[in-house]
Amino acid sequence: MAEESVIRAAGCVLWRRSPSRDGLEIALVHRPKYDDWSHPKGKLKRTEDALAGAIREVSEETGMTCDPGLELPTARYLVGGRPKEVRYWAAEATGGTFAPNREVDRLLWTSPEAARRHLTQPRDRELVYALLSALHVTGGAPLDGEGR
Asked: Please, is 11 exposed, middle or buried when counting C-beta atoms within 10 Å of its C-beta (0-12, 13-18, 19+)?
């Protein structure tokens, strides 16, 4: 299939150290248009670099700034008969404040276990496992005490 027919998108599995306990929390966004829970992501602009687009989407959808880390597995699926490719990065939230908007009406910070239950798409659940593996985390608690 022609490269220009692929819908290019990018996003992040956004995480932070848990403010109330050891371990980490993952940010999930609720999109009212689809009534689903997902990781922050979106289509890339015409000549936009995937990582830059992922950071932009995190900011637009969550209000958060982030420090991207390792690239996670790319999701590939069909949308309206067209192939879509979404590149993801692990990204630590570094600040910001959420404000509901047209695309995202809720932001949920939750444990990795709860994130897997909330996420609508199985492909998004797999990204939680990929994040934990990239951060060397088991059961939501960093093995090295640093989360990296």
From this structure: buried
**Which residues pair with residue 10 across a beta bridge?**
42, 87
State how far the Cα of 22 lies from the Cα of 110, in Å rounded to an integer. 13
- Specify the amino acid at residue 96: G
Phi and psi at 80, nearest 5°, equal: 60, 35
Q: Which residue has the higher pLDDT, 22 or 139?
A: 22
Domains and CATH numbers, the chain: 3-142 (3.90.79.10)
Local structure of 31: helix, strand or coil: strand
Beta strands in 18-129 (DSSP E): 24-31, 36-38, 41-43, 64-79, 82-96, 106-110
How high is the pLDDT of residue 19? 80
